[in-house]
């Protein structure tokens, strides 16, 4: 094998004039410049892989670095399991990074072309990430991909996990969204719907002023095509007229129900929301009342 040529780093753009010059460190300029030189020369080698590691340590959000690294991994037939382990460490150090999870998908898809991949392998790293930030959008998006790719909608461990998330924080909208995806992505099912309506109603009773749970409940009704009037007695529990209102979301559902059965009462409910119980959205409630 021919010896590799020395690398002359590409100079980063520091030409004048610049509105706001970025003061790169010498380490950054040398590392990124070296990777750009390797990319320019289309070098796919172990040393190029090592340089991408150094560069990603400095700037994990650089999309081109990840794309180049994946091309190198494919070209040199690098150990994909070792690559997953490396990627895991980078993820733990960069909680808010999207590129890491997209890259991880690519590696797993490549593994699947060669051998069987157990999706449960991913659960520990996902649990660790969501323990640090229970609403990390990038991690939940990756989790959704994992469920979809490996058909884990009915996976007991996945259902137990999302249930534990809601037990810890019933306001976690990301967990509610994921639960809805698990239960209803494959289509409407009345048996599942009945069970989930009972589940979410229990959660609403724990915390009546919880928009995530009410959205989940209304989402079920929309998905299976049920009449909202079925919820009138349930909503009345949180809107006793002689007592302090416990849920403005229950008031909104009642107003929607009464649009057909009692328009005048619906109008009055919207105006109570506008003037007393939710004045921040007064314009919206007045618009609803006008309808």
From TrEMBL:
Domain of life: Eukaryota
This enzyme's EC code(s): 2.5.1.58, 2.5.1.59
GO-annotated molecular function: CAAX-protein geranylgeranyltransferase activity; protein farnesyltransferase activity
GO biological processes: peptide pheromone maturation
Pfam families: PPTA (PF01239)
Sorted UniProt keywords: Magnesium, Prenyltransferase, Repeat, Transferase
GO CC terms, sorted: CAAX-protein geranylgeranyltransferase complex; protein farnesyltransferase complex
InterPro entries given in the database record: Prenyl_trans_a
Enzyme class, broadest EC rank: transferase
Cofactor(s) for this UniProt protein: Mg(2+)
The family this protein is said to belong to: Belongs to the protein prenyltransferase subunit alpha family.
Protein name: Protein farnesyltransferase/geranylgeranyltransferase type-1 subunit alpha
Gene source species: Meyerozyma guilliermondii (strain ATCC 6260 / CBS 566 / DSM 6381 / JCM 1539 / NBRC 10279 / NRRL Y-324)
